[in-house]
C-alpha cells in the first residue's frame, strides 16, 4: 500500500476508534508520561508537544504535567501554510490564553511567543510500527524539523488502532525513540 492509501485507511480507523470512546474515557487517557519514558527526559529539557485535533491522541495533560515539573513547553508554529514549522513557547496549558488560530486549523503560539527548540519532542502520527517507524500527515513537517535538529528525542503518542505491521519507509523518514498508547509502551529503542 502507498503512504497515501495507508493514511486514508488509518485516519478512518482513528476516527472510528475515537468516536467509539466515551468522552470521559478520552480525557482519562494520556494523563501523564509513563515512568520508563521519563528516563529519556533530562531535568532541564524543553518539551515539545502538540495541540491535538479531535481524533489525535490527546497531549494536553502532558503539557500541564511537564509545566508543573518545571519544564519549558513548546508547540509548533507556522507563519503560513507554506512556511517551515518552528517551535515557540507555550506558557499557559491550563487556559491556552497564549494560543491563536494557526494555518492548519490548529491553535498555535502567537507570533510574539519566544522561539524554543524542544530537546524531547512528543509527536502526533497517523500510523506507527512496533520498531518506531512513523507515518505522519504527509507534509514532511516533523521529518524536516527532526533532520535539522538531530539531537532531539522524538516520542510518538497514538491510539492502539494506529499500529501497523509495516510502513513504506523513505530515506528522509526519522524513526521515533518510543511510542506510547493507552495500553502499551513501544521502546525506548536503543
Ligand atoms: N495536532 C497536530 N499538530 C501538528 C501536526 C499534526 O499532525 N497534528 N503537524 C504535522 O505535521 C504539523 C502541522 N502540519 C499539518 C500538515 C497537514 C495536515 C493535514 O493534512 N491535515 C488533514 C486532516 C487530517 C485528519 O484530521 O483526518 C487535512 O487538513 O486534510 C495537518 C497538519 C504541526 N502541528
Ligand atoms: N528532511 C527532508 N528534507 C526535504 N524534504 C523532506 C524531508 N523530509 C520529508 N520531506 C518531504 O516531505 C514530504 C512528505 O514526506 P512524508 O510523506 O514522509 O511525510 P510524513 O512523515 O507523513 O509527514 P510529517 O513528517 O509531517 O509527519 C515528501 O515530499 C518528502 O520528500
Name a few traits of the molecule.
ATP binding, ligase, Rossmann fold, 5-formyltetrahydrofolate cyclo-ligase, about 190 residues, about 25% helix, 7-stranded mixed β-sheet, two-stranded antiparallel ribbon, alpha/beta, 5-formyltetrahydrofolate cyclo-ligase activity, EC 6.3.3.2, binds adenosine-5'-triphosphate
Based on DSSP secondary structure assignment, what is the total number of beta strands?
A: 11
Largest sheet: 7 strands, mixed
Q: Compute the gyration radius: what is it?
A: 16 Å
Mean pLDDT: 96
Catalogue the ligands: the ligand Nc1nc2c(c(=O)[nH]1)N(C=O)[C@@H](CNc1ccc(C(=O)N[C@@H](CCC(=O)O)C(=O)O)cc1)CN2, adenosine-5'-triphosphate
Q: Architecture, CATH level 2?
A: 3-Layer(aba) Sandwich
Strand arrangement within the widest β-sheet reads 3-2-1-6-9-10-11
Order of helices and strands: HHHEHEEEEEEEHEEE
Overall, the morphology is globular
Main structural class: alpha/beta
Number of domains: 1
CATH superfamily: NagB/RpiA/CoA transferase-like
Do you know the CATH topology?
Rossmann fold
Helix segment count?
5
N-C termini distance: 28 Å
Q: In what range is the share of β-strand residues?
A: 15-25%
Percent helix range: 10-25%
- Report the CATH C-level class: Alpha Beta
Low-confidence stretches at least 5 residues in length (pLDDT < 50)? none
Binding site for ATP: 3-7, 134-142
Cofactor: Mg(2+)
Binding site for substrate: 56
EC number: 6.3.3.2
Amino acid at each position: 500500500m502507498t503512504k497515501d492509501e495507508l493514511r486514508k485507511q488509518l485516519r478512518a480507523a482513528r476516527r472510528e476508534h475515537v468516536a467509539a470512546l466515551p468522552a470521559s474515557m478520552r480525557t482519562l487517557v494520556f494523563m501523564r508520561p509513563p515512568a520508563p519514558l521519563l528516563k529519556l527526559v533530562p531535568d532541564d529539557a524543553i518539551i515539545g508537544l502538540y495541540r491535538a485535533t479531535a481524533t489525535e491522541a490527546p497531549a494536553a495533560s502532558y503539557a500541564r504535567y511537564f509545566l508543573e515539573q518545571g519544564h519549558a513547553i513548546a508547540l509548533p508554529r507556522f507563519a503560513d501554510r507554506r512556511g517551515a514549522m518552528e517551535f515557540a513557547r507555550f506558557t499557559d496549558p491550563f487556559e491556552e490564553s497564549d494560543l491563536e488560530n494557526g494555518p492548519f486549523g490548529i491553535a498555535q503560539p502567537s507570533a510574539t511567543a519566544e522561539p524554543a527548540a524542544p530537546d524531547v519532542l512528543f509527536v502526533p502520527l497517523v500510523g506507527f510500527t512496533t520498531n518506531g517507524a512513523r507515518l505522519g500527515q504527509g507534509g514532511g513537517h516533523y521529518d524536516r524539523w527532526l533532520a535539522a535538529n538531530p539531537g532531539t528525542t522524538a516520542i510518538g503518542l497514538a491510539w492502539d488502532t494506529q499500529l501497523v505491521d509495516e510502513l513504506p519507509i523513505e530515506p528522509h523518514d526519522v524513526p521515533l525513540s518510543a511510542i506510547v498508547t493507552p495500553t502499551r509502551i513501544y521502546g525506548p529503542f536503543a
